[in-house]
Design brief:
Length: about 120
């Protein structure tokens, strides 16, 4: 029961922390322009939210779909596994710094291109 309360508190905290970030995104994916304007806490909240969304989708897929069926959540989880929020934040920061003409790329696309996809292609 304690774990459930901790998860609820985390989710509420993430939602509250991400509200200013989400408001600026208004019906579109957050991109490098949003990322550059965000505080470190807003970036962390965004990344935790993405991680939670992938985990929820992964757990749903595990219960409802055949194990051999390839889904985004299964690939994303495998590609992002073992990478901390802090490391992800550093890598996204570095990617946008190295690609200033690509600030229109969605943050989640950068996570896929720079972290998940290279890890998956090595297998």
């Amino acid at each position: 029961m304690k774990a459930l309360s901790a998860v609820r508190a985390l989710v509420i905290g993430v939602v509250l922390a991400a509200m200013p970030f989400a408001a600026s995104a208004q019906q579109r994916l957050a991109d490098g322009n949003d990322w550059a304007k965000s505080s470190a806490d807003e970036k962390r909240a965004y990344l935790i939210g993405i991680g939670n969304a992938v985990t929820v989708a992964y757990n749903y897929d595990a219960r409802k779909l055949p194990a051999e069926q390839v889904t985004f959540s299964r690939r994303a989880r495998a590609g992002l596994e073992g990478v901390s929020v802090e490391e992800t934040m550093r890598r996204v920061d570095a990617w946008y710094a190295s690609n200033p003409s690509k600030l229109d790329y969605a943050v989640i696309a950068v996570m896929w291109l720079d972290i998940a996809k290279p890890k998956l292609t090595r297998k």
